[in-house]
Amino acid sequence: MRLSLIDVGSNAVRLAVSDARDGAPLPVHTAKWKLRLSEQVAEDGRLGAAATERLVAAVSEAVDVAERWGAPRPLAFATAVVRDAPDRADVLRTVRDRTGLALRVLPGELEVQLTFLGARRWMGWRSGPLSVFDIGGGSFDLAFGRGRLPEFAVSLPLGANRLTNEFFTTADPPPAAETVALRRAVRHQLRDAAARVRWENPHTSVATSRTFQQLARLCGAAPGRRGPFAHRVLHRRDLRAAIDQLAALPTDQRAELPGITKPRARQSLAGAIIGHTAMKLSGVESLVLCPWALREGILLRYLEDGADWWTELAPELEPAGPSRRAEVAPYAVSAAHGPRAEVVPAQRSAPPQARPPAAWPAAQPADACPLRTALTPARR
To answer: What is the rounded CA–CA span in Å between residue 220 and residue 230?
Structure first.
């Protein structure tokens, strides 16, 4: 069986055509359209007409390419750059009306679940209790689990591109005060979720996403030409040294470093700070690079649970608002739309150090219940 998938991300629209053999999606053809939608977002977060037109053209071409490769109509989804846009209903409607393809806007929590599934299938059961770290353009995802699906997962608005635009605004390279402020913000939002991972003490920790791949290459991992089966590891101590290296260089010089591509050079420093802070707070010394992530997770879920699973994920055409919860047993999760992340463990009790939750501001969802944990971060 041949399948195709379109991924609308912050930097590019990607098409993956795969053959499903023995329950695994094997790549046949890939294509990419570099739209860099995140750079076209207005101050209020809207994508606007010009960006939507470029998106329509890319999706239409991707559908044609998938058809030429003998694949049925693609499964198509959009990540945070569309999910967080106030005009996302207009964007989704325009894409559907002009291309005939309905983009699914997956809740951040469901994205984490599917990324975990992809990582679990690649790493196998010998990896044991598993934690997964993923840095996107608009969000940072963290999950832990012992089985096929995670028991704990959280999606936070800590993407590399998002924080670059928010914190690095005055000079290139940014002054030390801005990097300190960014690290402080990341630490503040991550400490509860990282405390949970630290308490679970995973046997294996993996990193997915292009940002982690480039940072690992910068820190000495094997280049991509060695293929997906090359063993690649990112050590925390090496990433800390890479932060100093990136912080000292302007964007154009970062693009000359091993692994750092020109389109991602500007956000590479923020990505390194996010990754290092997450590893440090979680007590993780090293991350194994995993080539399977969200796209593979969607295809695996489609193969394992059937086409009805995808069909029931109706495209969202309502005005933008707080993320809806995903129905993803056996764990409960939530996205962060406020100063702290909500962490709702479903199967395990809270760590012994946990204190009673503090009250959230009135603007937060009524069922929000942050876990505040008195846990001293690990020193490097």
So the answer is: 13
